[in-house]
Structures are given as structure tokens and as C-alpha cells.
């Protein structure tokens, strides 16, 4: 099914019911769609697939700072070689934490709703190790006996597009647009907001070797009078243009190490003696600032709309209770049937942030930065239907099922839909669900009392989200 990247942005608020009279859906919760970030992974290199000793020698001059490179220490190893270097794969600890979330969905969040058969659950994952294993972890926690449940990874590339495959019609955000966003030809004004955090990372690393601050045009000087070191703030700015790295500069380098520290701490590894867990979490503000920059509205529209359109079509298929017609050719396709009750997407943090921008969402969860797409964090979409005029049985609300606190002001009064036509009976509730930083680090079992919620109600006519409160 070929889904346009930009033409369907409002589709979630316009669930067409052309043939709804052919089937009258039951009221209450109809379908749950989970858009999840993969679990805790190992670090990338700085512009490469894996980090290296040479990289750390350039940036980390602090002899007392241990940033482990061992794949075995991280839990990403796939060989017996003790010298294997960590790579950005799902860690064993990350698998465990996501599996705990699957069990939480089954035992607490949707205990009564998920009494369905294995066939009524379906999953898509990006075609890489960390997303595939994240889906397997969640599904194994959700339905331990459904061993045949595996995610679809074939022809999902455009579904989980982040910007790695730009086209003429959907390009990566241009340099001119980036400069308009930052207000300069670099990120100097962005850095003003996080200067304190960058300085703390710089002090921790005791950054850097002089070669880090030299440019290709200006080789490192050998004069003994020249300084043998530089710092993060002295790194020159170079335009790079990649979807994940517009500039190579102070921000990109500080971002790299702030994320490394976060992943290391969430993976339940030893913390640097100079930093508390709380301090590492606060330094993650650097990474969130970088993510906000690269998941801007241009990139969100160009690369996030296919996933949102696929999600929307999945809702519509459930409402219509018949397969939607799809075009032939490369995917993504709607491979789940109309009977699907739970649909799971194993994606990336960028994918969640693209959808966040397209739907104008905000979420706040205790212990995390605003709208932070934490490892294993999930946007949970619920499709509901109110009773028809001829079928006014009452169904307990999802909040009643979970004993959630009220979110206060909502954007749309569900009660007004009870006596309206079928086209208005369907609405979507949206939550962001995540374990706390401590729960991820410790791998704790999750219960209805200890998972963090951010909740908002989506008006399917206006596609706006007003209320975001932390529910504990």
C-alpha cells in the first residue's frame, strides 16, 4: 500500500465511514495501537556504526572516566570474542525491560481487553536487530504462550523512515531552513539554552585532544607552544547535512556523550564516580535539545506521515471491519486483518517525535524531560466507540479499568457523541507510557501503581491535544 507522506496528515481526525451502515461496531474500546521506541541499546560511534578506542582517546582525557567499549559488558555481544566492540544493538537488559512492559500491558493495563487470541495481535518492526528484538520482547511479555507471534520486518523501510532515504519531493531539511530555525548559520543560540549542561560534560570528559578542534583546511599545528588540548566549546562548526547530524559542532559532540552516559546508566552499568544517576538524567537535556532540532516540522512532514497514515488506515480498517483496498507495489502494506485488536510498531525515537510534531502532542512523565521518547517508551492510541441510538449499553471507561486519576480539562466531551451518527461515534485517546528511570535501570517488575503515564485526549475532528498531566 502506497501511503503519501504528507497528504494524509489529517486522516486520524477524519476516519471515513462510507460503508459504516454495513456493520455496527460494538461500543467501548475497539483497538489499541502501540508506537514504541526500541529498548536500551549500545552506543553508535561518532558518525560511524560503532565507537572505538581512538574515538575515546580523542575526546576523553579524564583518566578516571570509564566509558566501556566491551560488547560483553554492554550485553550486545553476538560472538565469544572478548574484544568485540559494543554496537547499537538492543542490550540483554533492554530486552528484559521491554518484556516487563509487555507483561504489564497484559496483567494490568489491558487485562480484560487482551483476552483475545494470538491471531488478534500483530506487529511491525524496522528491519534491524534492536527493533526486531524489541518487538519480540514486548510480544513475549504480552503473550508468553504465543510463540508464533513475530514482527513483520519486510517492506517496512518507508514505514519507519527517519530521513535516511530522502527524495526530491521529500528531502531532508535544507541548510537554509535549519539556519532559519536556529537563527544563525550555526547552533550558537541553541547552545545558550544548554550551556551549563555542555560545560558539565566538557569538565567530565576533560575534553579534548587538539586534533578535535582542527579543521580539514587547517591541520593541527606541531609548534610546541600551541596548546595540546582544546574543549567542546572550541570545536569548529562544519555543515554535514545528514538527517541526524546537520552540523558537526559543539552541540553534536556534547549530544553524543550525553546520550552515551544516559544509555550506560539505563543499562544498569556502573556510573562514573563523578556523576549521580540524577545528574546524568539532567544532562540528557542536551540530547533532547538536539532531537528537537532534527525532528523539526519539515523533517516530520517529509518522513513521519507514512507511519501516521498507516496507523490511521489500521484504525479505519478496524472500524469498517473489512480489508481496505491497497495499491500494488512496494510496501508498507496493511498486513493485519480487520479483526486486529492490538497492533504494535517497534520504531525509533525519531519516529515518535515525528508523530508528536504532526499531531502537536506534548507529554510530561515524572523523572524525564518534557516529551522525551525514552528507551522502551510508547505512544498508545486507543480507538473507542460510543453506543449507537439502538444500543445504549454502558461500557466502563479505560480510566475506570485502570483507576487512573482524572486528567482535568479535556478537549472533547465524549458524552456528546452517544446520540450522534455513526461517523462521530469513534474517537481516539492517546497516552504516553514509560517506566521510570529507576525502573529501567533496575529492571523492576511493573505494576498499575508504578508506571508513568502522560495522557491527553485527541479530538478526532480537530486533531488537537490540550491536556498533558502525569498520572501516577
Automatic annotation (TrEMBL):
Residues 1-20 form the signal peptide. The keyword Plastid does not apply. InterPro entries: Acid_Pase_AS, His_Pase_clade-2, His_PPase_superfam, Histidine_acid_phosphatase. Keywords: Hydrolase, Signal. Coiled coil: none annotated. GO terms for molecular function: phosphatase activity. Belongs to the histidine acid phosphatase family. This is Acid phosphatase. The lineage of its organism: Eukaryota, Sar, Stramenopiles, Oomycota, Peronosporomycetes.
Amino acid at each position: 500500500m502506497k501511503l503519501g507522506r504528507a497528504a494524509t496528515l489529517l486522516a486520524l481526525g477524519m476516519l471515513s465511514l462510507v460503508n459504516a451502515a454495513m456493520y455496527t461496531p460494538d461500543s467501548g474500546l475497539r483497538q489499541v495501537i502501540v508506537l514504541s521506541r526500541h529498548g536500551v541499546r549500545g552506543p553508535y560511534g561518532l558518525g560511524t556504526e560503532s565507537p572505538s578506542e581512538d574515538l575515546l582517546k580523542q575526546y576523553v582525557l579524564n583518566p578516571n572516566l570509564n566509558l566501556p567499549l566491551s560488547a560483553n559488558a554492554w550485553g550486545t555481544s553476538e560472538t565469544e570474542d572478548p574484544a568485540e566492540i559494543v554496537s547499537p544493538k538492543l542490550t540483554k537488559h533492554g530486552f528484559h525491560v521491554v518484556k516487563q512492559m509487555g507483561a504489564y500491558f497484559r496483567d494490568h493495563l489491558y487485562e480484560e481487553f487482551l483476552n483475545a487470541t494470538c491471531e488478534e495481535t500483530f506487529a511491525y518492526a524496522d528491519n534491524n536487530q534492536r527493533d526486531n528484538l524489541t518487538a519480540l520482547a514486548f510480544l513475549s511479555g504480552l503473550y508468553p504462550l504465543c510463540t508464533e507471534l513475530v514482527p513483520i520486518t519486510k517492506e517496512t523501510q518507508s514505514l519507519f523512515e527517519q530521513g535516511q532515504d530522502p527524495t526530491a519531493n521529500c528531502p531532508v531539511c535544507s541548510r537554509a531552513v535549519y539556519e532559519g530555525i536556529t537563527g544563525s548559520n550555526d547552533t550558537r543560540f541553541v547552545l545558550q539554552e544548554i550551556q551549563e549542561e555542555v560545560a558539565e560534560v566538557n569538565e567530565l570528559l576533560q575534553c579534548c585532544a587538539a586534533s578535535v578542534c582542527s579543521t580539514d583546511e587547517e591541520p593541527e599545528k606541531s609548534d610546541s607552544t600551541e596548546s595540546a588540548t582544546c574543549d567542546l566549546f572550541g570545536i569548529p562548526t562544519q555543515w554535514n547535512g545528514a538527517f541526524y547530524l546537520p552540523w558537526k559542532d559543539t552541540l553534536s559532540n556534547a549530544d553524543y556523550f550525553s546520550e552515551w552516559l544516559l544509555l550506560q546508566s539505563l543499562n544498569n552499568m556502573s556510573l562514573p564516580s563523578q556523576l549521580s544517576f540524577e545528574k546524568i538524567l539532567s544532562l540528557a537535556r542536551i540530547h533532547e535539545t538536539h532531537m528537537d532540532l532534527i525532528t523539526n516540522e519539515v523533517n516530520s512532514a517529509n518522513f513521519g506521515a507514512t507511519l501516521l497514515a498507516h496507523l490511521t488506515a489500521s484504525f479505519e480498517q478496524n472500524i469498517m471491519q473489512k480489508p481496505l483496498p491497497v495499491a500494488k507495489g512496494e510496501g508498507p502494506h496493511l498486513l493485519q486483518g480487520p479483526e486486529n485488536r492490538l497492533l504494535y510498531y517497534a520504531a525509533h525515537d525519531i519516529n515518535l517525535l515525528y508523530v508528536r510534531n504532526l499531531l502537536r502532542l506534548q507529554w510530561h512523565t515524572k523523572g524525564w524531560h518534557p516529551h522525551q521518547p525514552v528507551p522502551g517508551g510508547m505512544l498508545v492510541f486507543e480507538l473507542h466507540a460510543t453506543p449507537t441510538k439502538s444500543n445504549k449499553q454502558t461500557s466502563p471507561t479505560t480510566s475506570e479499568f485502570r483507576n487512573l486519576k482524572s486528567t482535568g480539562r479535556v478537549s472533547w466531551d465524549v458524552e456528546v457523541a452517544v446520540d450522534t451518527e455513526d461517523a462521530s461515534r469513534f474517537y481516539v485517546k492517546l497516552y504516553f507510557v514509560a517506566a521510570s528511570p529507576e525502573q529501567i535501570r533496575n529492571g523492576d517488575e511493573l505494576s498499575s501503581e508504578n508506571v508513568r503515564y502522560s495522557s491527553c485526549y485527541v479530538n478526532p475532528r480537530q486533531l488537537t491535544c490540550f491536556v498533558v498531566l502525569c498520572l501516577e
